[in-house]
Amino acid sequence: MKNQGGHTRRRILKGAICGATGFVLGAPVRSLGAAVSQATSPPAGTLRLSDDLFVVTIPGEANVVAQTSAAGVLLVDGASARGSDALMKAVSSLPGGGSVHTIFNTHWHPEQTGSNEQLGKAGKTIIAHENTRLWLTTDVTWSWNGQRFKRLPKIAQPNKTFYTTGNLESPEERREAVPVGGVRYGYIPDAAHTDGDMYVYFPKQNVLAVGDAVSGQGWPVVDWATGGWIGGIVGGLQRLQTLANEETRIVPGRGPVLGLADLKAQYQMYGTIYDRLTQEASGHGVRLRALAREPRFGALHRDLARAEALLAGPGAQQELAAIDERLRGPHADALAELLQLGPRTRLDAATLSAWIASVEASARRGGGGWTAPALALADLAVDFPIEHDALAAIFMNLLRNAQAAVAGQEDGRVIVRIDRARDVTGRQEVSLALGDSAPAPLTLDIIEARESGRGLAIVRDLVREWRGHLVVRPEAVPFTKVVGACFPL
Ligand SMILES: [Zn+2]
Fold it and tell me: Is 109 exposed, middle or buried (0-12, 13-18, 19+ CB in 10 A)?
């Protein structure tokens, strides 16, 4: 069981690193969403939130928040390409309305970014989180239904991006005549819906636009292909609560305007589901957290995924070179740390004694002799970069082999050596070896030729699986040789 869990974990880690998936549980959540979210669309029309702030709903389209001013209109999301013209018409006919000067993309989905092209061509400001821009510069395929999304042309991509927060109140923004009261915006780093989710907050009007990070109708959709996950829904709901008060009106991507109480209720509900899933996952030895969302490894993961996408597409040499540079620079520590994340098994005298006792018991049960081994430990405890069960199997087979070698030998001797050394390239490695006093020769070639599934062949195969190497070397009298396994750290 332990072993299985470990293998699953490694496979998931590998899958994530290869950019294949964030976390697979996103898929059932998404398909459930498709079944449940067919609730009635809100009626077409416009909801006035304040003198200058509106929710514009074009039939069949996601919610758009529009703020009017003398400078024109600021939009949060821009409908799909199909609904773009209707949206622009609706926006220009708002009280105090006009042409759009700025648009926020709360995330990359086509339902939000369909006006980007015409606004970008007109030289307007398109603001999004950097991750959203990245998704819009690459083709995306949803592996659960095969749906493909073409990248947007350069002119339609966000031309102003941010990583954490921003506001439109800085002096240069003021020259653009954004209305007093300004706009604050920020990243929702939990990845509730995608890994580029953002909110836009209008302090004067106390209105918070949250895109699809919160669902106003039906089950929330999780786009796990671009980073969303169930834990992100919960984290996002929690985070957004801290931005809102009892009077805040919260505009989700779909459905009616919500209040703080709605966020709290959703948080309770999804929190409960999330806790259950977490328990379920940990029962399988899996941590319910997408690697993309690891605070330490997220950036690294995104770059690897991005590199993979670029490799599949034409050109983009320059960007690949930049990613390569980041892998060698800012990511270097994270990469090294990631390698340290693998399983570790601590070998100390107590663990060894228990393993030795277990081999002795089965040897005696089998009626064989027993030569009590000596212990030579480099340190009180040495950590091996390999799973407990695999290391135990290696040790016990080495010990059985040594016992068999000295069986019947007058004054046979066996020794267990745990060492720490540097290999020829200077890399640290740890080794676990058994010495014996048997005269019979043994070479790596002999071990290599053994059939799998027994004795030293098990050791050989496990050592290979865990990226170690076998050693056979002569040993000072009273011993003749040492057979062992080395693992680089
Ligand atoms: Zn969406």
Answer: buried
pLDDT in tens, 178-201: 555 589 999 998 888 998 999 999
6 CA from centroid of ligand 1 (Å): 34
* Distance between Cα 294 and ligand 1 center (Å): 22
Phi (first) and psi of residue 227, to 5 degrees:
110, -15
- pLDDT tens-digit profile of 374-415? 888 887 788 898 888 889 999 999 999 999 999 888 889 999
For residue 339, the model assigns a pLDDT of 63
* pLDDT tens per residue across span 267-278: 998 888 888 877
- Which has more pLDDT, 23 or 285? 285
Name the region of 466 (left: φ>0; alpha: ψ -120 to 50; beta: rest): alpha
In angstroms, what is the span from residue 140 Cα to ligand 1's centroid?
13
Taking the model in full, what pTM does it have?
A: 0.56
The residue-averaged pLDDT of 234-239 equals: 92
Instruction: Report how far ligand 1's centroid is from the alpha carbon of 186 (Å).
Output: 17
pLDDT digits (tens, 9 = 90+) for 74-106: 999 999 999 999 999 999 999 988 999 999 999
Protein residues near ligand 1, an ion, with CB under 5 A: 109, 212
* Ligand 1 centroid, distance to 106 Cα (angstroms): 8
End-to-end Cα spacing for the chain = 26
| Phi, psi of 199, rounded to the nearest 5 degrees | -115, 160
Q: Name which of 488, 285, 487, 489 is nearest 395 in CA terms.
A: 487
- Domain residue limits, the chain: 9-282, 296-340, 345-488
Name the class of domain 345-488: alpha beta
Average pLDDT of the chain? 81
Measuring CA to CA, which residue among 23, 228, 196 is closest to residue 112? 196
Q: Which fold has domain 9-282?
A: Metallo-beta-lactamase; Chain A (3.60.15)
C-alpha of residue 320 to centroid of ligand 1, in Å: 28
Q: How many Å lie between the centroid of ligand 1 and the Cα of residue 297? A: 24
